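User: Assemble these into one structure.

Assistant: Restating your components, then the assembled model:
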Amino acid sequence: MTARVEVYGIRHHGPGSARAVRAALAEFKPDAVLIEGPPEADGLVELAADPGMVPPVALLAYTPGESGKEDGRKAAFWPFAEFSPEWQAIRHALDTGAEVRFCDLPAAHQFADAGEEEPEGEEDVTEDLRLDPLGTLAEAAGYDDAERWWDDVVEHRDGGPAPFPAIAEAMAELRERLPLDALPAAYRLREERREAYMRRTLRRALRDGFERIAVVCGAWHVPAVRAAAPGAPGARVPAAQDDKTLRGLPKAKVAATWVPWTHGRLAGRSGYGAGVRSPGWYHHLFTAPDRPVERWLTEAARVLRGDDLHVSSAHVIEAVRLAEALAVLRGRPLAGLDEVTEATRAVLCEGADLPVRMIEERMVVGERLGEVPAATPMVPLQRDVQAEQRRLRLKPAALGKEIELDLRKATDLDRSRLLHRLRLLGVPWGVPAGEGRSKGTFKETWTLMWRPELDVELIEAGAWGTTVRAAATARAAALAAGATALPELTALAERCLLADLGDALPAVMRALADRAAVDADAAHLMAALPALVRALRYGDVRGTATGPLREVVDGLAVRVCVGLPTAVTGLDDDAARALLERVDDVHGALSLLGDEAHLERWRATLAALIDRPDLHGLLDGRLTRLLLDAGRLPDVADRMARAVSVGAAPSRAAAWVEGFLSGGGLLLIHDEALLRLVDAWIAGLPPDSFTDVLPLLRRTFGAYGSAERRTIGERARHLGAASPAAPGGDGDDDIDPGRAAPAAATALRILGWEVPA
Amino acid sequence: MTDDAVLRPHAEQQYAGELARLAEHDDRPRPPGWRLSPWAVTTYLLGGDLPDGTPVSPKYVGPRRLMEVAVATLATDRALLLIGVPGTAKTWVSEHLAAAVSGDSTLLVQGTAGTAEEAVRYGWNYARLLAEGPSAEALVESPLMRAMRTGAVARIEELTRMPSDVQDTLITILSEKTLPVPELNTEVQARKGFTVIATANDRDRGVNELSSALRRRFNTVVLPLPDSVDDEVQIVARRVAQLGTALELPEAPAGLAEIRRVVTVFRELRGGLSSDGRTKLKSPSGTLSTAEAISVVTSGLALAAHFGDGVLRAPDVAAGIVGAVVQDPVSDRVVWQEYLETVVRERPEWRDFYRACREVS
């Protein structure tokens, strides 16, 4: 008996195709099934039968990079959902003990091939874009939308004769008619090679003695594959010709594995174009045993009820009626997604758009994340991540979820460390909410969302080490060695502390100290300091050893004080403004550090600066103010008068006032001493000078909000009359320690500090 | 009765020819009580060509799916609720639906704060009631009751303006499809084909929200403002032409550019964004619906015909536009001035319009 070959043309991710393929295979009982997919995965296919394998999953083929080289990495996915015909074919073959082989052009060739664009796993898109064979057929059938036509003719039909002969005929007809020459040459060449490889795989299977061979491939390729099938209609293609096409193809090193996939990635809207617009709906069509419309709308009603929208069974009944009436009106065999959505909108949601969008997100796309069994080939790092996920009870999910970590708890602290380490490895599973630093130091909020690409990132990061900790350490050390700027290094140090990478810290610190020593620019040093000081403070809560960090901070502080005097000479307005920010940052950081020696040195540096005549007005004013706040300057009133007197250039005077009063109007409102000082100075100006100074003042005060200005004015009015006992004046000193003690104790307990009994 | 003398003929009178032709070619099954099949009704609303080449003018310009949902709703004997801001053709659609489905768009209850229950159920001829006692002859039917008896489509305008207790009268009618008359110990059972089309706008405040019991007896279709400038220009131009014929205004040539300008002004102010997307604008308090654009252009045409040179020009529409935009004399005037100075003035080809608006504001 001669071998029989059946070629089933399908649409990828089509539930109707899947159903038809399943039925056809059950009848044909093949002993070998060839499936469009990367041959590299032939060895992995048994895993599909593992109970731990839950679609949607994807075959991932990638080029294993060397020691984390970022460029040149290539990866391609072949996604399978429960309702994918390929998946059903694989499962059927495995269940019946038939041989499964993938017959697409090996990824090794696709990757190595010039690499003009990322090779995609599916060819539907490209075809739809470039020549759209289904669109042509749909048009012939009087449809304006190819998807709807295919849905009506293939996907929504249940039972009846297998559609495959008809599809094959239609495709053969189409391939003859369409102007293939109009396609780009590169694309055509690739298609030729792919089809040649499919035929070659088929011939090899025939040679291997299989007698009943089923080929499952995209509908478009059916005529091409048949050209190598004995007894099939259509022209032959000799083996020699295919060998010629495939000779001398470049090859790349490729590894393959299974990765979990999501419905969201299957949907066309997320950029991966190969998919279907409504995976959730297709999954429903495929899995629902009967009455798909009724079941769908009932489920939609449940989703709405879950969000406290009142939807009764009567609503569902009417929605089903409307959907069916619409389908009849539009001449469709079964209510499709369009009809069901209209019915949901008009009846269940009473015309409102928002709940409809919710249904779309949760059901039509449906965030479903697949799972792969433990036996799947993985790099050690992946295994370690999985072990950590299990240990810390953090399950990857496709839908973004916000979690709050209390760093005083051991588990939460470990979770935070894991997330920080993964981020350091370039696997942003969690994104810290509110990038701006919050006030609390023991709470962290993360948004967790597992995307399929993260698996690829993980595999790539596997080059750094076998455990998350080791890999992150290695990566941090490498980053430190490659860093060129100080702020980069300090930010890295901060991340190391957050991720509790004590082993990496010495390397980073050494790099940091080396950089700081040779960096002549005080501005750089100043930019680096605040992050380090913050990191030191973090150490308190996280229990990280911060010894090396402390040394670096000490060294930096000294260097900043030494370097500042040279940094302030010859600045223009913009540079002065930039430096002012740095000075403020350093000042804040040193105050936060609370080291008296550093603060003393800093103040002495500043005090030495303000007497220099070449100092920019902005800085002069600001430094005067900083020293005034520190109580180091007895003669501020004189300095103020001097700075804005006739001798000073107006622009410098304006800058001085601006620098002195910077920090917003609120300070003037609440710092009565400051207000008195300013008030006295203005009141003491001779009339002529006042007119000169007025524009300068206006420039500074004009930047304040109108409410602030008004309050300042009111305060200033009462200033003259106010006795020392005016409200606000005595509030600070009037603390009753006995009554404040319980409140202070509670505050301390909230902060997690020991309460002295 | 001479239709010519009527200021505004009903839909079924004005389009009697189209309806007759549609019925002639309609070979699809018709739901009981319907004059046309659902397909023919959809064609009547959205326009198209009949097999013999007779064109059917589009009555509604907008998403096809909305009309399909509306027709499918009526075909499943559900009540239809049309919602939208004022001027989105709710009444227009309901009238044409009723005309196409049952050939009669006059079974109409106008909802107002003073609508009484009698207007929805039935009233009495008190002279006869006193003279003869309760009898079928003394009963005065409401349009709704007549629709039930004849199996036709009843229309309720501005449903949310009715007092809540009157609204709730509808619940029994819509769910049981029967209207009891306890005084005569009888009832009216709706014949097949009876259904209700109600309209309500979701912009006005001080309306009586529908109870959820009533709400769930309706399928809801939200009519949106026109999607694109071109759609809106098309709607305005078509309606203006129809109104112009009815009012026997002389034909005004080259009005399309002016109509486009009116529509652009309305859309920009409504959306709070200039059409090039560069300038943010304040929106005035009025709705600035398509219907208002239509009336602005119509009155501009009248001005041009009777006082101008017969061509629709900027000064003819300026007064109308200002009147439509400035509803609140204080805040809207600021909005309008701002728009005039920041957007209109910057457009060189709008100079005539700018001058005209300056003159009237």
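Residues 288 and 479 of chain A are 52 Å apart (CA to CA).
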